[in-house]
Amino acid sequence: MPTSYSITDSFGSNLAQLLSDKILKVYPSFDSEHYISEIENESKNLNYTQRVVLHANQLQKHLPQNYVQAIEVLCSILGPKNPKETGMFTNYYWILPIGKFVETYGLDHYNISIQAIEEITQRNTGEYAIRPFLRLYPQKTIQQMQHWSLAASFHLRRLASEGCRPKLPWSSKLEEFINSPEPVFKY
Questions:
Q1: Nearest Cα residue to 89 out of 124, 121, 117
Q2: Which of 5, 22, 112, 124 has the fewest CB atoms within 10 Å, i.e. is most exposed?
Q3: Other Cβ atoms within 10 Å of 95 Cβ, number
Q4: What pLDDT digit, counting tens, does each position of 91-108 carry?
Q5: For residues 96 and 160, what is the distance between their CA atoms, to the nearest angstrom?
Q6: 3-state helix, strand, coil in the chain (%, to 5)
Q7: What is the mean pLDDT of the chain?
Q8: Computed from CA positions of residues 51, 77, 63, 130, in that sequence, does the dihedral angle turn out positive or negative?
Q9: How far is CA 39 from the centre of its chain?
Q10: With 0-12 CB in 10 A as exposed, 13-18 as middle and 19+ as buried, what is 134?
Q11: CB of 136 within 8 A of CB of 101?
Q12: Residue 165's pLDDT is what?
């Protein structure tokens, strides 16, 4: 590994190739050639966060335009759940664009998106993806998070506590919980 290697380097065309290989197994009409090429061309001067967004946007462009069909494809490539409390950003780093996909394109599909976030967080993290749902659907999302707070899975319990943190690193603030934290303290 070169000495100038950074985490950003993991989110370029190499990740596009990895995701393409997984997607093609369940969605053979995926245009992997254009997906990889577009990621390679557009990611050169982007930072890590911007690259995750780029992947999500390009996945949306190359997967079925029906969100439900697209998220079914993406959830089908997630693989086994992470049995450990660690490794989400090393072994399962490649799932970050899928969480960003749900966060960006799934707001009009609450139930299937919440199910996707539940699956994603048991491998990587759903802490960022859940935040727009907390803003748009605060009551039912808090109820879902209360349910997750009692789950056997430590990944879901973590999502329940970390996802509603008013100030989460590398994420936008949840102003509504800064000004009125009572819903967060109920569980």
A1: 124
A2: 5
A3: 24
A4: 899 999 999 999 999 999
A5: 18
A6: 65, 0, 35
A7: 89
A8: negative
A9: 18
A10: buried
A11: no
A12: 75
